[in-house]
Amino acid sequence: MLHPVICIDGPAASGKSTVARLVAKDLNFVYVDTGAMYRAFTFLTLEAGHDPKSRARMKQLLEKVVFHADIKDGEIHLQEGGRDLAPHTRLPEVNASVSVVSALPELREHLVNLQRKLRLSAPLVMEGRDIGTVVCSDSPYKYFIDACPTVRAERRRKQGQQDNLAARDKLDSSRSAAPLVRAADAKLLDSGHHDARTLADLIVKEVRARLSPAPTVP
């Protein structure tokens, strides 16, 4: 049985992760950060000494990597070879290369298949860049969270991260495989004018009004 999925998309530093976590907690859904999956593979690429721009090298690595997803404490945790990759996904070098790596069509196909299989496990709040357009395009619960570049840049600064958001936006929105776009039926939410709690409350209220009976996490 496919469980319901709340799709939350948006660009880097839009606040979608914070909102998605709040929604998942309020609804007792499982939180899925799909961006962390691409970051995990980016870390493995750099760890192996491969050039992120070398499609041949990354395809070779992808053939060797076997990801395993576990539900723990209401979240999806990605492991490879028994190793938790979460501590490595926010390294500066990973942050600098993830948009290049995530444009690899073979990687996107592999991870999209994995993400879709998660729907068999539990009701989900899944956030990323192509959830409402590609991964779970059949979901009736779609939201696109955005904010102006100035607000997003300030968030990155407070997080202690250096990020060329304009360059990342261009890469994410112009790639051939699943570019970052707002789904036609996704509700646009501005995180620059509303805080995360307000946006989460709005989503929770709308979803609860449409879900009957309320699903539960196994």
Characterize the structure shown.
The chain has 218 residues and is α/β, with parallel strands linked by helices. The protein has nine helices and eight strands. The strands form two sheets. It has a five-stranded parallel beta sheet. The protein has a three-stranded antiparallel beta sheet with strand order 3-4-5, with helices on one face. The protein is globular and about 50 Å long. The mean pLDDT is 93.
Number of domains: 1
Overall CATH architecture: 3-Layer(aba) Sandwich
What do we call the CATH homologous superfamily?
Answer: P-loop containing nucleotide triphosphate hydrolases
The oligomeric status of these chains comes to single chain
Q: Round the Cα radius of gyration to an integer and report it.
A: 17 Å
**Structure classification:** alpha/beta
Strand percentage lies at: 15-25%
Biggest sheet, strands in spatial order? 2-6-1-7-8
Poorly predicted ranges (pLDDT <50, ≥5 residues)? none
Distance between the termini: 13 Å
CATH topology: Rossmann fold
Please write the CATH class name. Alpha Beta
Count of extended strands: 8
Percentage of helical residues? 40-55%
User: Averaging pLDDT over every residue, what do you get?
Assistant: 93
Query: What does the overall shape look like?
Result: globular
Biggest sheet overview: 5 strands, parallel
* SSE run: EHEHHEEEHHEHEHHEH
